[in-house]
Every structure is written in C-alpha cells, then in structure tokens.
Write a structure and sequence with these properties.
mainly alpha; Helicase, Ruva Protein, domain 3; 3 domains; 3 strands
Length: 213
C-alpha cells in the first residue's frame, strides 16, 4: 500500500474490524496511522435504526406500527446485525401488515434464540474455561464498560493483576476491549445479556480454573 501511494495508483484498500483494530494495526506496522484513515462506525442512531428497519420492508409492502418500531430499536441496541435479525424473523413469522408491538413480543424468544445460536455462541466457545468464567463475571458486574478490578473480584481473583493473563487472552481474541485504562467491555453489544441467560456466573461456582486465588 505504501508503494501504491507513492506511485499514485488508483487502488484503495477498505477494511473493517472490531474496536481494537487501530491498536492492532499500530502493533503490526509502525506508523500505521500515517498509512490508514480511521473512521469509527458506531451503533446506529435511533433515526438510522428506524430507517434500516422500515425502508426495506416498505419497499415490499410491509409496515410497522410505531410501538413495534420502538421496541425493536431499543432491543437491538442500534447494532445493524441485530436489526436485520429482527426484520428477518418478523418477515418470516408474521403474515399481516402492519406489524404490531404484540408481534414483536411474540417473536422475541425466536429472535433471541437465533442470535444466541448463530451469533453469540460461536464467540463464547472461542474462550477457554477460565476465560468463560471471566466473561460471565463481566456480565454479572453490568453492561457497558466496567472496571477490571470489579470483574477480577467477581470472578474470584485476589486482585486485577492476577486476572491479567485471562484478560489479555480475551483481548487477543477480540471478545473484549479496553476503552481506556482500568476498564473492559464486550466488543459486541448484548453479549452480557446472553451470558446472564445462558452462562450465569453461578454456573462456574465450582470452577477450579481460577489462578491466583
């Protein structure tokens, strides 16, 4: 890419990744910030989420009642793939228009099951036993960025430093990221809710994989 830029060739490289991507690029290639322009693609705003849900369906004669739209926007947390999954399941399950809030509530279990099986489960299974326990502890502490010291204590470590090996392994697997020093968060939204449903911390109470207790 450096040579392409020097020769002013009409070639572009466009890529996408999870929040740690800029840090990983800087580690892999010195002066990466000079070679690439970074644009953060965050969750959709409420207005953008509504458009992503309603516009494609409207082109095929399917409408949503306002209450149904609000439920989906809130439940999807503005994450494009989750909005797509709500639209897909409702399109297949409901045969009338407009779609109502009751339709959304009736399909919620199917949508959660589909996301659990096709999206969250694969990510969770990337983690070792000790890493899974740490993830469950993160979910137990709360949603959003949480303090690493709280997570370590909840997971049963004597201090944050004792949990660093597990935490660093999860960082390398891109299951979590550190928005700033001392904080940790999941790289995808709603992962904490999945863990609380399927793998609560109580399921790891007898786990002997914790080191540094």
């Amino acid at each position: 890419m450096n040579r392409v830029g020097q020769r002013e060739l009409p070639v572009a490289l466009v890529g996408a990744g999870l929040p740690p991507l800029p840090r990983l690029l800087r580690t892999a290639k010195p002066y990466a910030e000079r070679m690439f322009a970074y644009h953060e693609l965050d969750r959709l705003s409420d207005a953008e989420a509504r458009t992503a849900l309603v516009a494609p369906a409207g082109q095929h004669g399917l409408a949503y009642e306002p209450e149904a739209i609000e439920l989906i926007v809130k439940a999807s947390a503005g994450y494009p793939h989750f909005i797509q999954e709500y639209g897909r399941v409702l399109w297949n399950e409901v045969e009338h228009s407009p779609l109502t809030a009751a339709d959304v509530e009736g399909a919620r279990a199917l949508i959660e099951e589909a996301l659990d099986r096709r999206f969250f489960k694969d990510r969770f299974e990337m983690a070792s036993d000790a890493e899974q326990r740490y993830l469950a502890a993160m979910a137990e502490v709360g949603d959003g960025a949480v303090r690493t010291a709280e997570v370590a204590a909840k997971a049963g470590y004597k201090d944050s430093a004792s949990a660093s090996v597990v935490r660093n392994a999860l960082l390398r697997k891109d299951l979590v990221y550190s928005p700033r020093r001392g904080l940790i968060d999941f790289t995808v939204p709603l992962f904490g809710g999945y863990l609380r449903r399927q793998y609560p911390l109580s399921a790891f109470e007898d786990d002997s994989t914790v080191q540094g207790l």
